[in-house]
Specification:
The protein is an alpha+beta fold. The protein has six helices and six strands. A hairpin with a 2-residue loop joins strand 4 and strand 5. Helix 2 crosses helix 4 and helix 5 packs across helix 6. The radius of gyration is 23 Å and the shape is elongated. 17% of the residues are buried.
């Protein structure tokens, strides 16, 4: 949730101008009037209205990402899919369940990584939010990435104790990124 304190003509003018500038639907915004403002007398003593606008960026980005992901999947010819959304604040996991899961994941998760990249570009293009939208296919992240993260932490601890370098097999970007984050905690 983000908050904006804005001054202007009337509260309704402020809200409509805010919505058009930010390019967001009104259903994700709540407005509280702080000061109504006044017209003054013959233009003298005029006071602008002041409002507090609450913007639910989490719900907006979640809906935007789901719509965009659906458009990509439909355009790519995937008809049999369902997007399950799991909320893990500030993250949102969009798990695609499909009979074509192998094609959506791709070899070494390359297709999944590409879907993640596209969704990131769309959701972060016009947002300064800290919300992360994660794309997953049939719980690939928990089935494949979590065991690799555990292995990486064990290897990092071993390297710390022995001082000898260790290697892991080459990985897709999506997997490598998660493993780097896990290894930083060691």
């Amino acid at each position: 949730m983000r908050y904006f304190e804005v001054e202007g003509g009337t509260p309704n003018e402020i809200l409509s101008q805010f919505l058009s500038q930010q390019n967001i639907p009104a259903e994700f915004v709540e407005m509280d009037v702080i000061e109504e403002g006044s017209k003054g007398f013959l233009g003298l003593g005029k006071k602008p209205a002041k409002v507090m606008i609450k913007y639910n960026d989490y719900e907006f980005l979640k809906r935007k990402a789901r719509l965009y992901l659906s458009e990509i999947l439909t355009a790519a010819g995937f008809d049999d899919y369902y997007i399950d959304i799991k909320d893990k604040n500030p993250d949102c996991i969009m798990n695609i369940q499909s009979s074509d899961a192998a094609a959506l994941t791709g070899r070494s998760a390359v297709v999944l990584d590409s879907l993640q990249y596209l969704v990131d570009r769309v959701t972060r293009a016009d947002s300064q939010s800290d919300v992360r939208i994660l794309v997953d296919v049939d719980n690939y992240r928990s089935r494949v990435i979590e065991p690799l993260k555990e292995k990486a932490v064990k290897l990092a601890n071993s390297v710390k104790k022995t001082g000898k370098p260790a290697k892991m097999q080459p990985m897709a970007t999506i997997v490598r990124r998660e493993i780097h984050i896990a290894a930083k905690t060691v």
